[in-house]
Amino acid sequence: MSTTVIDTIISNQDDESLIWIVFKKMLFFTLLMIFAPLTSYFVSKEFIFDGFFNMSDRSSYISSVIVTVVVIHVILIGFLVVAFREDKSDKKKLNKKD
């Protein structure tokens, strides 16, 4: 039976520290997914599109939603980058131990 990278990491590290590391990252990205899109929507609508550019209501709504969608995609890409970098660093650590 072969062991995976995750099984080896879990067996090598303290279970509680691994849980806290994962919890902190998930909490960070969860809070970011909740607050960043809401903040970007209202800030871009009220201050940028309505305030600075004096756009109509309909245009400012559409533009603010576009900004919000871009923010959500940036957060998701950031999460994926963090996840893949963590996986690569774990594999490197495993190869150094062998």
UniProtKB/TrEMBL annotation:
Organism listed in the record: Didymodactylos carnosus
InterPro entries reported in the protein's UniProt record: Vma21
A Pfam cross-reference name: VMA21
UniProt key word RNA-binding: no
GO biological process terms on file: vacuolar proton-transporting V-type ATPase complex assembly
Compartment(s): Endoplasmic reticulum membrane; Endoplasmic reticulum-Golgi intermediate compartment membrane; Cytoplasmic vesicle, COPII-coated vesicle membrane
Protein name: Vacuolar ATPase assembly integral membrane protein VMA21 homolog
GO cellular component: endoplasmic reticulum membrane; endoplasmic reticulum-Golgi intermediate compartment membrane; ER to Golgi transport vesicle membrane
Primary location group: endoplasmic reticulum
HAMAP family: VMA21
Family statement: Belongs to the VMA21 family.
Transmembrane segments: 26-44, 64-84
UniProt keyword RNA-binding present: no
Function according to Swiss-Prot or TrEMBL: Required for the assembly of the V0 complex of the vacuolar ATPase (V-ATPase) in the endoplasmic reticulum.
Mode of membrane association: Multi-pass membrane protein
Protein keywords: Cytoplasmic vesicle, Endoplasmic reticulum, Membrane, Transmembrane, Transmembrane helix
